[in-house]
Amino acid sequence: MKRSPSLATGLLGLLALGLLGAACSAADDPVLETDVATGEATSQATVSTPAETPSELGVYEQALVALGWDEEWVDLVVFAEEARELAFERPVAIEFIRDEEFVSSDDLAEFIGDDSMSRSSRQSCGP
Amino acid sequence: MNLVDADYSLAQNVNVGLEDGVIGLYGGSGERIIVRGAEKNVLQRVTLVHELTHGLQDQHFELTYRWHEVHAGSALLTLIEGDAESVANAYLASLSDAEQVTYWELLDAFVATIDAAGDVFIPTLLSAPYTIGPHFVDALIAIEGVQAVHEALRAPPTSDEQILAPARFLSNETARYPALPRPRSGEQVLGRGTLGPKSPCSASSQRGSTSCRRWTRSWAGAATRTP
User: How far apart are CA B161 and CA B185, in angstroms?
Assistant: First the structure.
């Protein structure tokens, strides 16, 4: 299950190591700029005006979006990474499924019938 | 042990717990998270943090569940879910008081929809990794920092005993499993396992007969066989 990091994930790791502290407050920090297309961060001392800023996201969050994470969830991604001092090697697909579809979904059936334990769930089974 | 009534259907109650009680999934092979409900409310955000932690586990550690090794499988499940729930709990704690109140209201409403038919044993047992596991993980972090969680995911605990008493895990103290009597003539062994300390612990917390702490202190190993 362990995989070698790709070029992009290597960059992500680099960003995580080098810029994590700054990126946490980068939404309020006009100094750092990020090339969103490549995810490459620079320390060029340029002040961005609100009109020039396409997103409220910080540098690191923008890099995550460039790598394929949904902008809506990058704060949660960063929270999990910081909590465990680990960086994602690549994005994970995220789906929200309506309650009735979830219960009848093949995914749930497969989960219940799966004995390889390659899956994990979050349960709340009782009072 | 008088844990359930004679007409109790174990299979039915386990399926109800799994079908109704799951609010999020992480699929290791596809690196895919599925969250139950399309509202994207605070309950689902906390659930997403839980599942994202499984994503980190999957991408950084070789987590092979071993159902055939009952003791290790149970302990690993509790570690994995405890780790994910610990991060989810931290995220919840970081939210405003109003958001936390909303979370608990949503969770209570969700739990109320589970048709457990008055059963307390299976729901308690199924949710044990999510309630007991975070205490184990948080203890590792308190004693040796987050690196201890990484080490545990590389070399997981091998019994519920180590989960319930983290010091035993850190000192590499393992359980002792007694030998079972040989099957009598004509008997066929259908399954082997252990009640661990976690199962009676879960049951006793409902029945109020014996404290979980007492179970943990006195438990050193157990084995069962289904003839």
Answer: 34
pLDDT band at A26; cut points 50, 70, 90 = very low
Instruction: Write out the DSSP string of B81-141.
Output: HHHHHHHHHHHHHHS-HHHHHHHHHHHHHHHHT---TT--HHHHHHHHHHHHHHHHHHHHH
Domain boundaries, chain B: 18-178
CB contact (8 A) between residue B33 and residue A92: yes
pLDDT, mean over chain A: 61
Residue of B nearest to A3 (CA): B59
So what's the ipTM on this one? 0.78
pLDDT at A76 over 90: yes
Contact B107, A122 (CB under 8 A): no
Determine contact: A88 vs chain B, CB below 8 A: yes
As a whole number of angstroms, the distance between CA B46 and CA B43 comes to 5
Q: Looking at CA atoms only, how far is residue A79 from chain B in angstroms?
A: 7
Q: Rounded distance, CA A120 to CA B116, Å?
A: 22
- Residue B15 at interface with chain A, using a CB cutoff of 8 Å: yes
This prediction has a pTM of 0.70
Does A76 contact B111 at a Cβ distance shorter than 8 Å? Answer: no
Answer yes or no: are the C-beta atoms of B91 and A76 closer than 8 Å: yes
Distance spanning both ends of chain B, measured CA to CA: 17
> Do A88 and B55 lie within an 8 Å CB cutoff?
yes
Asked if residue A15 has pLDDT above 80, the reply is no
Judged by CB atoms closer than 8 Å, whether chains meet at A85 and B146 is answered as yes
Residue of chain B minimizing CA distance to A85? B146
Structure tokens at A56: 């409220």
**Residue B40 sits at the chain A interface (C-beta within 8 Å):** yes
Residue A16 pLDDT greater than 90, yes or no: no
Q: Which of B15, B22, B111, B144 to mutate to test the interface with A (most CBs of A within 10 A)?
A: B22
In chain B, which stretches have pLDDT less than 70?
1-4, 10-19, 28-29, 64-71, 115-122, 177, 191-227
Contact status, residue B169 vs residue B119, Cβ threshold 8 Å: no
User: Torsions phi, psi of A120, nearest 5?
Assistant: -135, 155
